[in-house]
Q: What sequence folds into this?
């Protein structure tokens, strides 16, 4: 089976996860790019090992009131600068959003199992809201070989796809302020018949409701699809079994999002 | 330089630092960062006779200076642990403590019977915080008579030393320990997590009920270690919010012979090797011949 990533063809997932490191870094940018969304850039003190799009990092926020690390998808990486796009959703991200330039953070990376690419005629990448953070690196890597669909609440969130605006992206907004008026899954379903004429695989990241709706429209044909899931995590290393998702495996239904995931086959998880 | 090695249940451990059960996966997960042979002993994830699926999410929740977990004892079962995960510890010659649990006395007994003596198995650690389904769900660890009977039943079927890991959710910890001691228990691990919960004010719900671990627990656990180690002539393993080697030392000085580190590993996965190094440096600085010499030294 042909695989797209040169290193993925010689290094299996176990070895990739062996390459993880805890690296000190310094914040160079932490800007609000859309209301409630921030782009964080961290200059790492030494290079991160090769990563697969879909993998994540655990960041220790430099604050006394937060003690567990927080997980973030790898948005982009240009040695030695690691970029993460995040949305403020709780105390950890709120404190992170107020963390200034030059602050030191420690970054455990790269973690988990990323997207697995096998040769297809076309790739379809679907994301909703902050879900773009999980597929951005994949979009960059696949370039024009993929069709990209992005959904958000309103036009003001379009800044989230600013860095890929050279690529054709089909956009939906819930309030109709830009592009297709509706959900990104509704938008995809309008193109699905045409897309299915080819041998395709879908990669998706977004809120649970989006993934559930996606599953419904793909159910009949069981189109190949990988989904990137998020869950509350404590360790990010598979030590605590805190971040599980339920799967169809009857013998051992709960799989760790940080270890066996965060990318899963859509048809193996119970959404 | 002084030696970190300790004798526990007749076996020599390279140092007194262990992981707390369930905080280092099945051991192999930490291997990309450091080897399990760094540990004095590896404490297994809680094992049961049959595999256990565990709870739905959320399973973890951060609180101020603490972590609430509700993993629900997910594990592959005692048989698969020995088939699949024990070989790593054999390869690395790393001693293990097998933590196990049951929901009936029969399950505890059947699980203990399955674990045959092995030179690397230094003890069985009984998780006594489980609800006893035959007694209306009250946990075994809350009643001295139940503790006595279950420890005695397990002692009867195994030649391996037995440790009772006690829950702090009791009126009188000494009474509970007395029950275990009279049944012939070989040691104690103090403490298990404290039952806790969270209220979501916006949604007006209770998102998680589980066990509280982490720094918030440390003073409570220290007091328990002090009290039980002065009252019973068996080794006490201290656990509860140990974040660094200073915390580790406070447990040793209070009377713990060995230590378990849990939550701290989630924050800094290198905590255990750092504590081992910190203890080595402490011995050197104090010109202390061995770590055993400081056990209980703060009690006067």
A:
């Amino acid at each position: 089976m042909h695989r797209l990533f040169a290193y993925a063809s010689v290094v299996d997932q176990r070895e990739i996860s062996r390459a993880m490191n805890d690296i000190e870094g310094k914040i160079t940018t932490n800007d609000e790019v859309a209301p409630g969304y921030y782009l964080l850039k961290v200059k790492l003190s030494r290079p991160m090992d090769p990563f697969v799009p879909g993998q994540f990092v655990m960041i220790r926020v430099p604050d006394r009131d937060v003690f567990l690390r927080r997980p973030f998808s790898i948005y982009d990486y240009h040695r030695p600068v690691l970029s993460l796009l995040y949305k403020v959703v709780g105390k950890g991200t709120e404190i992170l959003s107020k963390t200034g330039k030059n602050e030191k953070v420690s970054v455990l990376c790269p973690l988990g199992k990323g997207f697995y690419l096998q040769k297809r005629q076309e790739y379809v990448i679907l994301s909703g809201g902050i879900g773009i953070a999980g597929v951005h690196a994949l979009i960059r890597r696949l370039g024009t070989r993929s069709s990209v669909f992005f959904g958000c609440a309103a036009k003001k969130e379009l800044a989230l796809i600013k860095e890929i605006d050279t690529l054709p992206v089909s956009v939906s907004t819930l309030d109709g302020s830009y592009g297709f008026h509706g959900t990104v899954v509704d938008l995809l379903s309008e193109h699905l018949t045409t897309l299915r004429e080819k041998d395709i695989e879908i990669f998706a990241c977004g809120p649970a409701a989006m993934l559930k709706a996606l599953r419904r429209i793909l159910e009949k044909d069981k189109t190949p699809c990988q989904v990137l899931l998020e869950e509350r995590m404590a360790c990010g290393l598979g030590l605590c079994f805190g971040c599980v998702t339920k799967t169809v495996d009857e013998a051992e239904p709960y799989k760790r999002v940080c270890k066996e995931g965060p990318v899963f086959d859509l048809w193996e998880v119970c959404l | 330089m002084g030696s970190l090695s300790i004798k526990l249940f007749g076996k020599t451990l390279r140092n007194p630092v262990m992981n707390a059960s369930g905080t280092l996966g099945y051991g192999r997960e930490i291997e990309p960062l450091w080897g399990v042979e760094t540990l004095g002993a590896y404490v297994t994830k809680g094992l049961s006779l049959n595999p256990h699926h565990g709870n739905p999410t959320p399973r973890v929740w951060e609180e101020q200076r603490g972590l609430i977990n509700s993993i629900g004892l997910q594990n592959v079962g005692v048989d698969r642990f020995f088939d699949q995960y024990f070989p790593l510890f054999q390869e690395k010659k790393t001693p293990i403590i097998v933590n196990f649990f049951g929901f009936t006395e029969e399950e505890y007994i059947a699980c203990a019977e399955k674990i045959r003596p092995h030179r690397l198995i230094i003890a069985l650690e009984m998780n006594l915080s489980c609800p006893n389904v035959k007694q209306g769900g009250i946990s075994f660890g809350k009643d001295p008579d139940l503790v006595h009977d279950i420890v005695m039943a397990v002692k009867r079927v195994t030649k391996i030393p037995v440790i009772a890991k006690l829950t702090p959710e009791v009126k009188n910890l000494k009474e509970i320990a007395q029950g275990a001691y009279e049944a012939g228990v070989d040691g104690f691990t103090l403490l298990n997590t404290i039952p806790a919960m969270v209220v979501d004010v916006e949604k007006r719900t209770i998102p998680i009920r589980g066990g509280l671990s982490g720094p918030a627990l440390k003073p409570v656990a220290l007091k328990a270690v002090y009290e039980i180690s002065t009252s019973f002539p068996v080794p006490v393993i201290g656990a509860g919010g140990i974040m660094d080697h200073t915390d580790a030392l406070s447990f040793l000085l209070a009377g713990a012979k060995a230590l378990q580190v849990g939550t701290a590993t989630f924050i800094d996965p290198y905590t255990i090797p750092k504590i081992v190094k910190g203890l080595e440096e402490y011995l050197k600085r104090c010109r202390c011949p061995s770590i055993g010499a400081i056990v209980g030294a703060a009690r006067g």
Observations:
- The CA atoms of residues 66 and 91 of chain A lie 8 Å apart.
- The first strand of chain A starts at residue 21 and ends at 34.
